[in-house]
Amino acid sequence: MTELPNATRAPESDAQEDASVDESSPMGQHEHCVTDRPTPAGQGSTGEIIKLNDIDVYISKPADYPHSPSRLLLLLTGGTGIKSTNNQIQADMYASEGFLVLMPDMFGGETAPGGKEAYFADHSTSLLDQIKLKAVEVAKSFMIDMWLARVTEAKIMPILLKVIEAAHEQYPDAIKYGGGIYAAGYCVGGRYVLLLAKGSHDSGADEESGMVKKGPHIKAGALAHAASVTPDDFKDLQAPLSLVCVENDALFTDEVRKAGEDIMTRDNVEHEVQVYPGVPHGFAVTGQYQESAIMDAQVTAYEQMLKWLKEH
């Protein structure tokens, strides 16, 4: 495990006030995972949303595909889903590096409840308004907890397996060229990179037949600040993995991370783990931050994941 230099926060000005998040508040731990940061100026997405096995999928292709060979990458999002411009830009970035990217709607259209306007209090308002805003914040936190409780393996894995099945039918050239399917995941999607890397998984079974789907379903994976991960998710991994982690992350605790590292080392799973201090959960997803150190860490995290996928 490697810990990177601390990404210290720049002094905050009045204009930067809306970029700060109280991590101790009910919404603070969730905010970066369920809402988009401002889209970087001048950037937009270039792919399109198609249907694969009746699942909505954002697809982004290299400029010269199919005339030049490409490898196939599954990109699994956080709670903002496939219609997020930032997530689409993230997919386009991988496509520009030679990957045919499929970003499936893992949540069946039910993205996480969000809206940062509810998370940031205006300090010029009255005490009564502050109390009202805090009540809204608590309610939003409860709604997100309920949403996370519905984002289960039994719901998500069959969707991913349907997309993988369709990919084998429609893009066999890309899968053959890469020797398998690659995967990158952020926040909630990060956990499902782990599950797709397992040797077998009964939660991905057909709900009626109860049959176990044999894996691993990916050749290699990279994940950033995964959410809702347990130590059991690291058992029976059979694909090399790169992990981008946040120091003191309440959604992916140091204890879970260390347990995962121990399990991967014990099972001889090729892996790398980089811990980024001084950054919020969700920092690796495309989006604008006022603090230059966080933006630098975002670039470094992307380069870490891209390098791992290209080398495997």
UniProtKB/TrEMBL annotation:
Which positions carry the signal peptide feature in this UniProt record? none
Q: Which Gene3D superfamilies match?
A: alpha/beta hydrolase (3.40.50.1820)
What InterPro entries does this protein map onto?
AB_hydrolase_fold, Dienelactn_hydro
Q: Which GO molecular function annotation, any one, does this entry have? A: hydrolase activity
Q: Region labeled Disordered — which residues?
A: 1-46
**Positions of the Dienelactone hydrolase domain:** 56-311
Q: Name one Pfam family in it.
A: DLH
Q: What PANTHER family does the record tag this protein with?
A: DIENELACTONE HYDROLASE (PTHR17630), DIENELACTONE HYDROLASE DOMAIN-CONTAINING PROTEIN (PTHR17630:SF80)
Q: What is this protein called?
A: Dienelactone hydrolase domain-containing protein
